[in-house]
Design goal:
Helices cover 0% and strands 51% of the residues. It is mainly β. It has a single domain, classed as Carboxypeptidase-like, regulatory domain (Immunoglobulin-like, Sandwich). The strands form three sheets. The chain has a five-stranded mixed beta sheet with strand order 1-2-11-3-6, with no helix packed on it. The protein has a four-stranded antiparallel beta sheet with strand order 5-4-8-9, with no helix packed on it. Strands 7-10 form a two-stranded antiparallel ribbon. The N and C termini lie far apart (63 Å). The mean pLDDT is 89.
């Protein structure tokens, strides 16, 4: 039976006027493509958003489930992730380098967008 060693390589939080995100990258020796998972929530009262979307490199779109959670795979490389939802401000990560075997947890916390629609 083979065991796989895993360690947290990098984690952090970024906060801005649109909200914030936290990330945690766990690296393993697996040969599988990186797995991205996490949730999209409202900053206050910190409830999960049901219609959340994660955009990868402004090209690929992944939808959160009814509980505000998402899981998807990306190819190894340098990626930016954007959490968004209708009536909320968008939050975008800095570039994250992903490698085979990575498991990356992203939690987006979005501020409501009170911009008038006229």
């Amino acid at each position: 039976m083979a065991t796989m060693l895993s360690c947290t390589a990098l984690k952090g939080t970024q906060t801005g006027k649109n909200g914030s995100y936290t990330f945690e990258i766990n690296r393993t020796k697996s040969v599988n493509d990186p797995v991205i998972y996490g949730s999209i929530t409202e900053v206050d009262p910190n409830r999960k958003l049901k219609i959340g979307v994660v955009k990868v490199d402004l090209k690929h779109i992944y939808h959160a489930d009814a509980d505000g959670n998402f899981t998807f795979k990306v190819k190894p490389g340098k990626h930016r992730f954007r959490g968004l939802n209708i009536n909320y401000k968008q939050v975008e990560t800095k570039y994250l380098n992903t490698f085979k075997g990575d498991s990356i947890k992203l939690v987006f916390k979005l501020n409501q967008d009170d911009t008038p629609l006229y």
